[in-house]
Amino acid sequence: MINTTPQNRFQASWPYPRPSLVRKKATWNDTCGRSYARMDVEDQAIVEYSGPGELWWVAHPSRVLVDNVDVGDVVGEYRVLDVVVACVYKKKVAIVAMKHIS
Length: 102
Prior knowledge:
This protein has three helices and six strands, in the order ααββαββββ.
């Protein structure tokens, strides 16, 4: 889902997918309306994250302002271990590392 061949300067400045694409691939939503989709192996290789936990895409709701996901938050059955890419103004997509709470 990460654009590795940008066609213009706008795609080069933000290579991550649109929130609508993340919402389509989402496997679950939290109570604030954020959608979560597990990151593909190819995208994980591009991000080069070597910390603990599994990487997830987070898409914020389109018309509602919600708080960003922070380290230590419990979201559903997962705990946020790291925020790899924070949600940028008007982009509404983030990458977080989460671990299942057992």
